[in-house]
Design a protein that fits this description.
This protein is of the alpha/beta class. Helix content is 39%, strand content 19%. Helix 2 links the parallel strand 2 and strand 3. Helix 1 runs parallel beside helix 2 and helix 5 crosses helix 6. The radius of gyration is 17 Å and the shape is globular. The relative contact order is 0.18.
């Protein structure tokens, strides 16, 4: 099978100085929906800028879904910022919110390390940059060097589907229901049981 899809427009973004302005511009241009996944979502200057853009989008009627890792959220996403996001209309979900350090189950180590965003299924961002100020990291000599890609084209289909799938799995496991289709051709009960197995036995 040929896994290469022609016809994409890809822009390399170098570290936060290029990534965050491009991300915020895309969010501000959203017409229907914004989906964002990240391991770390920090309550710092960058977190405030991205949060403001997400809230602006939600307040003009855009569906905004934000998925953060339970461990990353524990250490970086403060209660006050979480409250601000939820009150601003953001659908905030935590991936594996249980983070008990002495729970000796191998699958507890499986975290959400993806950094993905798609806007309207038309623009996507893929890379290694978390929502955190990369020039103000205690204990590290700045700047942190990392990269992301801004993508338009046929690759968006796979990116949208994988983001929907992970969101639906987490809602099904945590709340036993989801408005996001996991397996459109499978009954809801079967989908929920399959999602439970995937989360328990990755």
């Amino acid at each position: 099978m040929n896994r290469f899809l022609p016809g994409n427009r890809v822009t390399l973004l170098r570290s936060g100085g290029e990534y965050f302005p491009s991300l915020v511009a895309a969010i501000d241009g959203a017409e229907r929906e914004v989906w964002l996944e990240t391991y770390i979502y920090a309550d710092d200057d960058v977190g405030a800028i991205v949060s403001a853009a997400l809230v602006r989008a939600a307040r003009r009627g855009i569906l905004v879904r934000l998925l953060v890792d339970g461990w990353g959220a524990k250490h970086y996403l403060t209660a006050s910022l979480e409250r601000e996001l939820r009150q601003g209309g953001i659908n905030l979900l935590k991936y594996r919110p249980e983070v008990a350090p002495w729970q000796f189950r191998s699958n507890r180590l499986r975290r959400l390390h993806r950094k993905l965003c798609h806007v309207d299924g038309k623009i996507a961002f893929v890379g290694g940059i978390n929502i955190i100020d990369d020039v103000n990291t205690p204990g590290q000599k700045p700047p942190r060097v990392d990269f992301a890609l801004r993508i338009e084209g046929p690759l968006l289909g796979a990116i949208v589907r994988t983001m929907q799938r992970v969101w639906a799995i987490n809602e099904l496991v945590q709340f036993q229901q989801s408005e996001v289709p996991l397996f459109p051709a499978i009954a809801a009960g079967s989908a929920r049981r399959r999602a439970d197995r995937e989360v328990r036995d990755p």
